[in-house]
Amino acid sequence: MAVGPLSLCPGSVLGEIYDVSDVNAEKKRVEAYMLAAARKAGVPIPSGETLDEEPDFRFDDEIPALGIELSEVLRPASSNHGILPVEQESFHNEIMTKAQQDYYDGSNAKPVHVSVYFTNTRGGKRNKAELALALTEFVKANVDRTNPFVSFYRPETPDGFDSIFIKAESRDWWCGEGGGYSLDDIRPQLAARISSKDKLVPTYRANLPAGARVWLLLYTGVTVARSMMIPHGIEEWRFSFRFDRVFWFTALEGQFAEIQRAAAANTVGS
Amino acid sequence: MEKTPQGYIDLLKPEDLLDFFLQHHGDVKVPDQTYEKGLPPQPGVPCPKCTYRNLGGQAYEISETPIGHSFIGSKDTCDSLIRKSGKQPYEINPAILNVLIHQNEYEEEHVAHVAAIQTPGIIVFMAFNTANGPAILSYLVDGTHRAVAALRAGRDFFAYVLTPEEALQCMSHIDGKPNPHFIGQQGGVLWDGRGSFIPLPR
Q1: Looking at residue B113, what is its pLDDT?
Q2: Which domain holds residue B106?
């Protein structure tokens, strides 16, 4: 990919601050961005962080010292008939990649762009190879109908596809994700993320100077499969944790909430 | 670069145009666009951008410039020119992107829908004569929602850059009249982005 003289991007928070060349580079890049974005949104995170592990960031210049662990809050499987939306998205993307590759592997394949919405299987399993083959064959059979595009909807589409759009242009094939979530999906997901990290609080404390504070920053991404909004009334929710403070930042809206601690006798997610 | 006609005419390469923009973006005070909200969803109406995507057809971008000119750009023609010329995308400085997003309207609900797509956008540079001399303008004609998503996700955003000469060939109408330099196919109507079609002058 050609990069012009603006490639250094002085406005970019990342890449200049941290050496992110290891295998976890993308995860660390995202976490570093989320930390900076949450701070910009108003979470009282001081500046001067150092990239670390367990916890992810440490602030040794703070008195007392501070460590912040990050964890992503995803749209849960409960919102999608038991299938994690990010896994479904990945499954769909693999089908699109294979179908596109198989289409162009054929002789004299005309350049086309294909957009697809898959049928919601409501938790049912589908065969990746079969869906890819069905899409490839369907596109081959209908490519000559593009003028410059042609759209198909159920029941014209093969089983497993709600809509297929074919356009005579050279661009990577694409599929859209759908779905939603309810209030009932959010609380257990928050509880699960807090609980999984809460087990490690003693480790975080052991890795920081004595008396250091340990915070948890939950964050949510921006795609359909990943994003969730902070619900109205979250200030009334209570969770048990040993972190000194817990925050939840949603990157799509740029909003945050401080998660309230339950009384010691209560269970996580009560 | 001095603000002379010759100075602007010398900006023939995308990297020179972007560099010029970067030097001068501070001339326009624009608030941080990362969490400026786009147009709100219409109750009971599905995402208009996704709906339009499935309808297909030529997409146009209409822009009113701050210097009293207007143009209608054909994204398909931009796409076609980019493919034929073998252009490569540029990483766009966030400061430039902030100004470009500020100029455009977008649907808030559509940001998440395209957040996973990293197809480069399209930036056009346009040159106009004004009473005060030549002026150069820049617009993001494709990729606004992806650009907002990239800002919010902390990702770099890439875009193809069309020079004024190239951009002129992709504008179907300028100041309400058909552009004789347009190399695409003239459309009959312009979709307003929210469900209505506007007839285009012939």
Answers
A1: 92
A2: 5-39+46-199
